[in-house]
Amino acid sequence: MDVNSTLEIVTGLTAAQKRLPSKLFYDDNGTALFRKITEAPEYYLTTCEKEILRKNADFILDQMENRPFNLIELGAGDGSKASLLIKKAMTRPNFRSYYAYDISKKALEELEANLEKSFPDLEPHLVIADYTTSLEELDIPSQESNIFLFLGSSIGNFSPSQASLFLEKLSHKMKDGDFLLVGFDLKKAERILYKAYNDSQGLTAEFNLNLLLRLNREYGANFNIENFKHVEIYNPGLGAMESYLLSLKEQTVYFEDLNLEIHFQQDEMIHTELSYKFSVEDIENLVKDTSLKALSFLFDHKRYFVSVLFHRRSLH
Length: 316
Ligand SMILES: C[S@@+](CC[C@H](N)C(=O)[O-])C[C@H]1O[C@@H](n2cnc3c(N)ncnc32)[C@H](O)[C@@H]1O
Hints:
Helices cover 34% and strands 26% of the residues. It has helices at residues 3-13, 28-39, 44-62, 82-89, 105-118, 160-171, 190-197, 203-219, 280-287, and strands spanning 69-74, 95-102, 125-128, 145-150, 179-185, 228-235, 240-247, 251-255, 260-264, 269-276, 292-299, 305-312.
């Protein structure tokens, strides 16, 4: 793990409200578990977003008119959603290439294999990168127009102010004529949200607890995951699902590689993820002080999810 992540772990676990950054979910195990989560019947997000992409692929690609263009994805995962666009793009003479950035090596290896199988003629560019720390440095192709993709409601893992800042930074990577497609999970009945993050197979629980196993593997920590429990709640004040790991008893965990001891009270919780849910108004508020303008709101038929197509406001 890099120095930034180590610092975030130490700062997070020594804070009054213990926390760990959600980007740490995605080691090899976490990446494999996340793929299983997307196939769980309760996890509606993937099904809904795929429906939108399937239905609107031509409309999205038509924004490029005849200009040569690339698809650029941040946090690509296995690329199964982008593939719906790539499939259509491959039939267009002005499509050039697909660039994917992800923090997980395993995700990019799977993505490479999937693309090779489905699109043997595509020469993709796959790059390991952390978009929370190195967005400014990402080497984005500048010769052609670009459609940026930020899917899976990953935007909901930021607080609203962080999300606005992230979108503003991303807009600085865009030229006139570029577009950005962002997936937002919409506010809905709490019971539907609750089931999506507490699936009956226990996959989300395993995904959350894997964070502690990762710390054991990579820092010589001695977490016993039997002594922790996955807790997922909807916070109506924030409009967000919140993930925690709850300490089932008073205990001390030792990180051998960091020579660090962390003490837990019984019922103390480590905050591991925020997944904000949005209304159309929330989305408009998110971009109101940025350089982005929403052009189209594309909904699935249940109105559980929306993909929003943005472009840069004209600078003139
Ligand atoms: C919630 S998954 C979404 C995957 C895919 N976009 C989808 O919609 O199914 C998040 C993906 O982003 C990657 N990721 C998470 N945090 C990241 C970061 N800070 N920088 C780059 N990639 C990140 C993970 O490895 C994972 O593949």
